Amino acid sequence: MAFLNNHHTKDEDDRIQILPELDVWSVIRKIALSGVQENPFYVCDVPDLIRKYQNWKKTMPRVTTHYAVKCNDSRIVLETLAALGIGFDCASEGEIRKVLSLGVHPSRIVYANPTKKESYLKYAAAVGVDLMTFDNEHELYKIKSFHPNAKLLIRIKCDDLTALYVFGEKYGCDYETEAADLLKTAFSLDLNVVGVAFHIGSGSKNFSIFKSAFAAARHVFDEAAKVGYDFNLLDIGGGFPGEKCTSIKEIGGIINEAIEEYFPDPTVRITSEPGRYYVNSAFTLVTSIHSLKATKTQTNERSYAYYVDVGVYGGLIPILFDENYSFQPLNTKIGGELYPTVIWGPTCDSWDKLAKNILLPKLNSGDWLVVEDAGAYTVAMSFEFNGMDTPKVHSVIDENNWKYLTQEVPFPMAVEKFVRGTTLDNYRTGLSSSNKFRTNYF
Ligand SMILES: *Cc1c(COP(=O)(O)O)cnc(C)c1O
Q1: Is 87 in the pocket of ligand 1 (CB under 6 A)?
Q2: What is the pTM of this model?
Q3: Could you tell me the domains of the chain?
Q4: Residues 308/289, Cβ–Cβ less than 8 Å
Q5: What is the DSSP code string of 13-51?
Q6: Is 425 helix (H, G, I), strand (E, B) or coil?
Q7: How far away, in angstroms, is 380 Cα from ligand 1 center?
Q8: 42-73, pLDDT tens digit by residue?
Q9: Residue by residue, what is the 3-state secondary structure of 42-55?
Q10: Is the pLDDT of residue 10 over 80?
Q11: How many helices (H) and strands (E) would you count in the chain?
Q12: Residue 348 designated active-site
């Protein structure tokens, strides 16, 4: 199968459209109803990324961030977060390269993959990415050979087993039975271990797990002191929710309390690696129905099946891992009776199923469906399976945030990154290169 990761080609126009006021749904209407848009697309609400940043800082003032690039590696996301001055969590040479290409200093990167390929490790050493994680002895010998001056974080296991993606089976050493021995080995190799990292799991709901994670980290800090290390960095990973209407207030409370209890010493730096928190609500996916069938349910009720042009391979792959999305008709005037509905993606694969047993009004070919909270693990994991086009991104910002990003942030964005004005061309920035036109044949 061809994993064509070509959704960010060099010549892609990823400038941001400045609007006097920002309302994502009216932006979507402008584009979808322009008459010249057939392909599915995303709208990226750049101010939403900025609000996430500000909200994080306010909620957890002692916790800095390294954004997890794997969650959404769109240039627009990376550039905005780079401008705000936060760091990045990278897992490969490719991700490090991408982040460095934005002019980000290597000291802002944590190479948070505990198992690194030799050539990637050499690359990290060559470009000065020094902070990295490990969780096994073999990795320590590799680091000793290829990046002996690295600053290391020992990754420990602390899982919320109810998370959608649990990492403990794959990553992290046991903080009680394995950590001390690993630290002794590292010490004997003269390696510089500076702290602890953990990740409670992605798509978690049980945030009280942070308490036991902090306790475990404290335990490892104390073990490290016995070995001869003086740790000064704790990385609390990701797993923070990022959908509209979710809040990190409660989690923030748990974390702030745990910091007070276990790490009151302000010289210990605390950082994190949120992915979905930053990007999920900033992206809205818009897709249209190109085919449909009238069907019957098992109890002989009328029902419908719709075929849309982006499916699990083109953007909504988290559906395969049990995530749910809601599909809202763009035309809110459609009313009347609701029918049991199945929504299928465009590929000829039976797993490419987006929703079943949902209730929707009767829709037609050409009607658009809007999927909110579509920024996490979507754009970054889409590919052209079966030759289907993948959605492109149109980014928008309001005047105030444009001023903020170009003038007030630590690393201001270039004015050439923006287009101003409400012409159709501007509304289609980022989208026009690959689009096809639709003829209304009804
Ligand atoms: C995937 C990943 C993250 C991001 O997780 P979210 O749940 O998206 O916040 C952070 N750190 C590491 C090491 C990861 O693998």
Answers
A1: no
A2: 0.94
A3: 16-45+281-396+422-441 (2.40.37.10), 47-279 (3.20.20.10)
A4: yes
A5: ---EEEESS--HHHHHHHHHTTSS--S-EEEEEHHHHHH
A6: helix
A7: 13
A8: 999 999 999 999 999 999 999 999 999 999 99
A9: EEEEHHHHHHHHHH
A10: no
A11: 12, 18
A12: yes
